[in-house]
Amino acid sequence: MEFWFSENHTENVQFSIRVDRQLYSGQSEFQRIDVFESPEFGRFLTLDGYMMLTEKDEFIYHEMITHVPMAVHPHVKKVLVIGAGDGGVIRELTRYPEIEQIDMAEIDPLVVEVCRKYLPQTACRFDDPRLTIYYEDGLRFVRACDNIYDLIIVDSTDPFGPGEGLFTREFYGNCFKALKEDGILINQHESPFYAADAAACQRAHKNIVGTFPVSRVYQAHIPTYPSGHWLFGFASKKYHPLKDLDDVRWNMRGISCRYYTTTLHKGAFYIPAYVEELLKNVE
Amino acid sequence: MPRSQESAPIYEALLEFEKKRVVPFDVPGHKRGRGNPELAAFLGARCVAMDVNSMKPLDNLCHPTSVIREAAALAADAFGAAHAFFMVGGTTSAVQAMVLSAVKQGEKIILPRNVHRSVMGALVLCGAIPVYVDPLCDERLGIPLGMRLKDVEKAMEQHPDAKAVLVNNPTYYGVCSDLVSIVRMAHARGMLCLADEAHGTHFYFGEGLPVSAMAAGADMAAVSMHKSGGSLTQSSLLLAGPTMQEGQISRFINLTQTTSASYLLLSSLDISRRNLALRGRETFRQVVKMAEYARGEINTIGGYYAFSRELVNGDSVFDFDLTKLAVNTLDIGLAGIEVYDLLRDDYDIQIEFGDLGNILAYLSVGDRPRDIERLVSALAEIRRRFGGARSGRIRQEYIEPDVAVSPQQAFYSDKQTLPLRDTVGYVCGEFVMCYPPGIPILAPGERITREILDYILYAKEKGCSLTGPEDPDVNHLNVLKGA
After folding, report:
1. Which of A260, B93, B141, B396 is most deeply packed, by most CB within 10 A?
2. For residue A14, with 0-12 CB atoms within 10 Å meaning exposed, 13-18 middle and 19 or more buried, which class applies?
3. What number is the average pLDDT over the span B11-37?
4. Residues A50 and A149 in one domain
């Protein structure tokens, strides 16, 4: 029997993973949710047929979206996470004892429920006492916040579907308002490689640049995402991602990572020429 | 046997026609799109293949005898009308046919001043004389309201020879006059009552929405199916009550209606009517829910005022259409048109219109809650980024027109072009609209006053789009010679 999960990365490019079995399939109010088990990547979660995470490579994404701002901002106490129903970002954040409050705004309760059941590798810290989950549209949640958070992490789906509103100027503006005067916003920033993703990437960058005084982009290699080359946005009101990196302090914590190091942190901001140009075109 | 609302005769006839693979030696010349592959690729092969000509199995809009007639009968039934006419020239064509059917040269028609330009155009065509009723203006919001009964009555008493009265049901902003009473007053005096329902299709299918023209007993109504009804742009309906002669109305429609009606438009009317009849109630319940949610959220931002039923005063605002999401922006120190531009330029959100003090977002069956969140968030952002103190910029929008000659006489008279500032005292020879929302500041035949001139200059300065005059920049106006 041939049993494969396939996702179209473009109209003309397909990415496939051999599947052992399907663990879950369901339709929520917002999207279709599936969990598969595969020989190569372990369990993986897809939403509306788009790859969200695999057990094998999720560490790259979750470490890079969390530890980069944590190594820059000197005193993160309150964090807002938008999306992140799989729990990976929460898992990384709970490794920092000085974080006092983690609010998570996830639109789809079913994603959280499914991940708790089938993806304990990421959904393992949902019971941390510092965490409060709000099942709400992220755009709506952040609109009501003013000068509250030190860090906002936007772990959204792609900008086609329920995550659409999380790539808009109004969203980034609302985040700016929700952050304290030295707050940092990190967002998953799509891929610069294929045309449709690159356009989304440019749009997001344009909207962030128009809102935050500091706006930089960094990269990671995520094998199961289209092209494998993925970007994150680092936007902030005050801190520079490299000049304000306190690598000694971060390394003193003794947090062990499999992808992130403070050396890689510096390298991640050195992006390819074509990506620099892509972004410069909308600045 | 009458067909049920579940059928869609034009749509079904097109499906049958498609199966037959008829060889086309008739127009349109693109021949199912084969002659224009770029267009077919752009619009879709199915779409261009359905762009066909009138023929026996598909009936003919000019003289409907089969599927179009059946579809129109179903529409009449769904809307509670005696007759329904499918219109393919926009609601403008429906309004014109309605007015032409009701009044002729030299006869009077009572209208609120905030009628759509299509009504003014109809008066130029037929030579009728307008008698305007001053729609009151809400001082705080700066919007024209409905007609008060006593003002309508006064106009009827002063002009007992008027043949008809026309009512906006509702206005662009969702304001309704007391249509049932106006119908009664008109019929008591032997006048017809016509309704411009360009923004009121959903009244026929919603719950807790204002009364529809047919339910109120009006004689005719022009209904924009392509707005809240979901059909394609330019498709519309003209409805008539039992007092009207079907053949008489058809005669007027066929004066200006195309003889090559688009089956894309006709099928969209047919399918939309079916949707409305079968699911309209649930659909508009959702739309009202979204609008109410959006109003609540917008009003918590602060500064903005998303107004609703609280405006109802039993007279000039007899009822309010809850599906309309109109927001007053003056308390954040921005003109509606400024917010309208910011929404589009900075946030990629296109709303229906912005005027001096308000914006209007059009909500419909196609909206999604997540898009409402974007709109609300963008409004919050605009306030944060650009908001200021309330500017004393509210200005009465209604200026009483001084009708010197009939619109038709003015339209055809010899004219001269004068610099805008030198036109005071002259009779205007053209329309001046402030668009959106497309309500005339001046119509042909009206005397230009200082007050009107100041308002035009003001609207220009605020960035409203002024249309109508031959001079696109409205630095000059055509006025009647010697008048």
Report:
1. A260
2. exposed
3. 94
4. no
Number of structural domains, chain A? 2
Q: Which chain A residue's Cα is nearest to B377? A: A170
Evaluate whether A114 touches A24 at the Cβ level (below 8 Å): yes
Q: Are residues A67 and A180 in the same domain?
A: yes
Comparing C-alpha atoms, which of B322, B317, B470, B458 is closest to residue B393?
B458
Residues in Cβ contact with A190 at an 8 Å cutoff, skipping those fewer than 6 apart: A158, A159, A197, A198, A200, A201, A204, A230, A231
**CA torsion, ordered A79, A84, A89, A94, to nearest 10 deg:** 60
Domain co-membership, B298 together with B363 = yes
The model's confidence at residue B2, banded by pLDDT at 50, 70 and 90, is: low
- The tokens describing A147, both together, are 């000068």
Interface test with B, best of A30, A107, A135, A143 (most B CBs within 10 A): A143
Q: What pLDDT, in 10s, does the model give residues B239-289? A: 999 999 999 999 999 999 999 999 999 999 999 999 999 999 999 999 999
A191 vs B: CB within 8 A: no
Quote the domain boundaries for residue B355: 281-386
Is the residue at B168 inside a domain? no
The predicted pLDDT at position B441 comes to 86
Q: Which of B386, B418, B445 is the last residue of a domain?
A: B386
Considering only the beta carbons, identify the residue of A139, A164, A210 that sits closest to B377.
A139
- Do B439 and B370 belong together in one domain? no
Partner B contacted by A212 (CB < 8 A): no
- A107 min Cα distance to partner chain B (Å): 11
Query: Do residue A258 and residue A190 come from a single domain?
Result: yes
User: pLDDT above 90 covers what percent of chain B?
Assistant: 79
Nearest to A141 by CA among A110, A168, A166: A166
Q: Domain check: are A185 and A272 in the same one?
A: yes
Q: What is the average per-residue pLDDT within A237-242? A: 97
Residue B436's pLDDT is: 45
| Cross-chain CB nearest to A165 (options B297, B346, B373) | B373
Please give the pLDDT value at position B391: 63
Shortest Cα distance, chain B CAs vs residue A92, angstroms: 29
Q: Which two tokens stand for residue B210?
A: 């204002």
Q: Is A244 a catalytic residue?
A: no
Q: What is the CATH number of the domain that holds A274?
A: 3.40.50.150
Nearest CA in chain A to B378: A170
Contact flag A140-B373 (C-beta cutoff 8 Å): yes
- Which of B299, B373, B375, B384 to mutate to probe the A interface, most A CBs <10 Å? B373
Q: How many domains would you assign to chain B? A: 2
CATH number of the domain bearing residue A27:
2.30.140.10
Are β-strands B129-133 and B83-87 bridged in parallel, bridged antiparallel, or unpaired? unpaired
Question: Domain check: are A74 and A43 in the same one?
Answer: no
In a domain, B306, yes or no: yes
Token pair 């949710």: residue: A33
Q: What angle do CA A256, A258, A262 make, to 5 degrees?
A: 70
Shortest distance between the Cα of A141 and any Cα of chain B, in A, equals 10
- What is the model's pLDDT at position A164? 85
Distance from C-alpha of B266 to C-alpha of B232, rounded to nearest angstrom: 9
Which tens digit of pLDDT belongs to each residue from B328-375? 998 999 989 899 999 999 999 999 988 878 999 999 878 888 899 999
Q: Are residues B292 and B353 in the same domain?
A: yes
Sequence-distant (6+) residues with CB within 8 A of B452 are B399, B441, B442
Q: What band does B137 get if pLDDT is binned at 50, 70 and 90?
A: confident
Residues B369 and B446 in one domain: no
Taking the alpha carbons at both ends of chain B, their separation in whole angstroms is 61
Are A127 and A66 in the same domain? yes
Q: What are phi and psi of B136, to 5 degrees?
A: -65, 160
Between residues A244 and B113, which one has the greater pLDDT?
A244
Alpha carbons B82 and B67: distance in angstroms, whole number: 18
